Amino acid sequence: VTTVATQDRAVTSGAGFDIELEILRHKFQAIAGEMGVVLANAAQSPQINQELDFAVALADRWGGVAAIDNPLHLGSIARTTAGVLEYFKFDMKDGDVTLVNDPYRGGTHVQDTTLVMPYVLDNAIVLYLIAQAHLPDMGGQIAGNYNPIATEIWAEGVPISPVKIRRYARPVRDIVTTVLLNTRRPDETRRDLESLLATLELGRRRVDELVDVYGIERLREALAYTQSYAERRARAEILSWTDGLYEGERTLDHDCAGSPVTVRVAATIALDELHLDFSASDEQRPSFVNSTLSNTVNFALLPVLLLLGPDVPVNSGILRSISVRCDPGLVTNARFPAPVGWSTSHCGAEIAEATAAAIAPASRFRAGALTCPQVLVMGRPERDRHDQIDLSLWAVGGAAGVPGRDGWGRPDTWSRSILPSIERWEVTTGMRVHELELVPDSGGAGRWRGAPGFDVVIEVPEGWLYTLVVEGRDNPAGGVAGGRAGAPAAVTIVAVDGSEMDVSVVQVEQGIPPGRMRIRLGGGGGYGEPFEREAGSVVEDVANGLVTLEGARRDYGVASRDDGTLDEEATASLRSVSGS
Amino acid sequence: MAFKVGIDVGGTFTDFVVTNGSGLFKGKVATRPDDEASSIMEAIAVIAGHYETDAQQLLAETEYIVLGTTVVTNTMLEYSGAETGLITTKGFRDVIELRRGYKESLFDLSLPAPHPIVPRRWRKGVTERIDYIGNIVKELDEEEVRAVVGELRQAGVESIAVCLLFSFANNTHERRVGEIINEEYPGCLVSLSCDVLPQIREFERVSTTMVNAYTSPKLGRYLRRLEERLREETFAGSLLVMQSNGGVMDVGYSAGRGVEAVLSGPAGGVVAAVRVGELSGYRNIITADMGGTSYDVCLIHDGKPEVGVDQWISRYRVAVPLLDVHTIGAGGGSIAWVDTGGALRVGPESAGAYPGPACYGRGGTRPTVTDANLILGCMDPERFLGGAMSLDQDAAIAAITAHVAGTLGISPIDGAVGIVRIANNNMANAIRFVSISRGRDPRDYALMAFGGAGGIHAGAQVGDVGIKTILVPRSASVLSALGGLMSDFKVSKIQSFVRSSANVDLDELNEIFSTMQTEAEELLQNAGAVHGAVVDRYLDVHYVGQVQEVIVPLRSRTRRVTAVNLARALRDFHDLHEQLYAFKRPNESAEIVSLRLELTGLREPVATVARQFGKESPEDAYLGTRAVYFEPDGFREVPIYDGQLLEAGNLVSGPAVIHEPDTTIVVFEGQEAVLDQYEMYVIEVVE
Asked: Are B598 and B536 contacting, i.e. CB atoms less than 8 angstroms apart?
């Protein structure tokens, strides 16, 4: 692959332009998209059908991802596929399906399990179909595999190296039995695996149809074209950045063992290539906030994908212009057998934020925080080790403001999942949700305001044990260019008498005092000086209860009259005196 | 002599179709922006002129007018609805803002928040709570409701949506809030979620109810004013409105049900497609309406259009049953461009009607699909819109050269070929979406193309998806208006009823169905339906844990559902599930989520005339030849026919082009077009 040095060349290298390849590119994407939709609709577990915590992809015969339905998993899907291909070199046959969940072989955490199936025609592999999903349980100390105080991966769950769960299109019973033996939820896991296999079959049928119409050779060319097209788009984008060496860092409140964790990245931008080196990050920790290199790639790509925007296809072509490295033994490239269970939240978020901070000055990246600090809230009845309910599904933080618009909803790249319906939740769990409402003054103040976070109040059953982690109290979602940080996260118990008590930031399988649990995630960061925010917009925010009267004066220097209209004089004086 | 009139008000043209028992008269007038009523009166005047009478006389003799309207769609697109408030359970006023976390794009930071059709300050929570079984766990605080209504009234709100948690299980509180609004603020329009969509899942319900509250006042005012105006002109017949479910209803019903008219126009086209398709002998059809900016596709299986319940309109979720029309941004006006990766792209940006394609000569300089079609010879520059407008070929070539061919280093002709292929592929993908991705094989369907440019592209698309037959109705350009004449009355009811399939109380189920049917019958009676009714029942079913339901027909020969009927439907569920999702679990029990009932009040069918087949040769319509580009050979001199002169039984072998006044049909090599007895071009594909 040649490096394209100028924007013009990036465009003209498309000469010899072949419309059929372009059409096939869209067809690959449509197939991945359809597989994803069918998987979500067919699956019976909330991790797949609501959280949409899965990815399906098509890869060429060398493992290069040509199309993926979930861009957030590009790094891990590409690396997992490469790992499986290497492991089963010369031993991938028609009718085989492999399974792997080892985070240290391209994965993220043990829950994310990947199936790879070769598509074979005339004894030659044409491409691979891949389906990855978060399974409900893979053994370990705590159901659901989130164990804040795990010091080794086995305390989180059972890692599985690549194995064949199908050979000659038939199930390999001994292997499947072993996999199902190592989960607390064998029935659901079996169903999820069936759904994944059905998804791969659907992909196979769709590829059959393409082969019928276009033939294998064209398909192969198109798999290559699709990636080189994405590569051109990515290189054109990076070329528009200012060359140089940039640094970024971001700190996580704590590692569940009492110490903060800092992720640091050095970004080198040279012409149309981006090199990210995380080797200055903190040492790995004896807790589940470590990240494997694959997970680090997933998150390092986030700001780049935002800069590329929704129009650029996400596939391995992008990875040709971006390299990610990190010395082993660090929190951003943990060494086996360190635990890594929560890295898909933290320190994944810190990796994305540090990268964004590094490339922002070089590019037209003008967003505030891409993520917001998360909480983990898992609960189960004391007598039942299997029935773990994830209450953090309800935690909703705010998106950052960006130039031209206020933040709204959840952080963009984290908005793939579908939040539960309150009514369905009550029908299925019997747990009542008492409130789900925006928190005033929680959006970071700024010329463009961050979105407020939500309060959710849930009636929690007595006699349950909870596993909890709260991040974001010390380091809430940051503001940019003078914008303020969003409000911090908190998990609070509201007792029957109305008194409130914060829960400790880390607890594992312990009871909590009776009452209602309030989960609050922070707001998004603001962008730009709050005093430059249009006073009319602040007055509007006050009328809508998103900013309090006091907050308007304090954060924005805006005063209102008793009837709610803008007090221009008072505002002018507020803004002139304490103008930041 | 009684006239029956169908009128479809579109963005550019107001189409009409009239019959007085002998043949159809069709035509169009320009739509006046923001004044549908005047466009309609203009259409009436044209119709009167045709029958050599005046508007008053015509209206006096008109039995009914069926109206397809864009008022609701436009209200949502422009966010120009009523000042609307929301009353909901305390603590949940932000459900609509949270949207279950949904964002249209994960990677588009410039996407702004959806316009709030109800600003947060007018979303009010009131103390009350009902649990999932329907028990009242906290009484409604009526004083609080009164206070809140007072505030909304004070603020100038003219329409209030009410959506309380679990009102589908027990609507006592919601009804009471409705009564209090009527007492405190008579004249305010009230939309209760238990009327609009008594279905589990609060976000979907509140969004649908809010859209109804937001759009109904405008629709209601418009319909009542129009009816008044027609009555003044001595109209004594009934004014009916096309609904998104493919039925029609009276003004009394429609005025308060804006949300059910969001697809009023497209629904008419689909209904007409069902009827004219059936006349020509086709019950399995994929309709493809290609306009200037969009391409609308809908699948009709065994004479019934698919119904969808998962649509969004203008970024608001609308969960009432709509004909499942899938829309992509690909039309004649879609703009072609080259992206930074060197790939040719078509749409979604459109040149619209102004400036329109470069060849319109209205100042447009960017190339569109229409420009490509023109320089490939598919269109006749002197015959556009029946010759009312001539097209500028040089402008088309210049635009393609400047924006596509030059950048890619290819000839303008190759650029045009590329544009058409990309557009065809986008459209073929839409066809695949409504068929293959829902477990239907497109080879079992005929493709019915309508809209101005549908007939140009259909012949090229069918190869891609394996379709064997193309249908192009002669009335292609006024099909939506025609649909109005052919639609039945229809009321769709839904009621959530969450039960394990193993544990259904049949008496309870029948009681609910019976209530739904009684309510629907009353509505039909009010609407003036007299010719008998057909009831269809359905269950929404899924496997435990799934978030999406499969709609399963529940067949019963009587008013009662028997144990056998129910068992049969539940068995069918597994097969339908397999068809949609490629697997089933017949040994697992399923969960019923909702009951649906559709009551269709039949209307007297419009008489259709069958024409005798004449001779096979189309020579009388032969106009000469023209160079038209066909892949892979390039330009060929092919015969051109004047569609107006073709007669039933004439057979046109491809390659050839047929020009109807407002639509063009390209017949490809290996295809044969026959005009059948019912004014339908039936194009058979050999390979």
From this structure: yes
